[in-house]
Design goal:
Transposase IS116/IS110/IS902; single chain; elongated
């Protein structure tokens, strides 16, 4: 996720990147809560 965020920061304003990160985290949290399974970073699809 760090590479994704660094790339986003290089292309957009910091406030836009912060909102995008918050939305991404909210989607991850919602998926974890909905599935009932523990969060596993390795299971995330790569963004690119």
């Amino acid at each position: 996720m760090g590479e994704w965020l660094r790339g986003l920061l290089s292309r957009t304003h910091m406030n836009t990147a912060v909102v995008a990160l918050a939305a991404k985290m909210a989607r991850i949290i919602w998926a974890v809560l909905r599935s009932g399974r523990p969060f596993q970073m390795a299971a995330l699809p790569s963004v690119g």
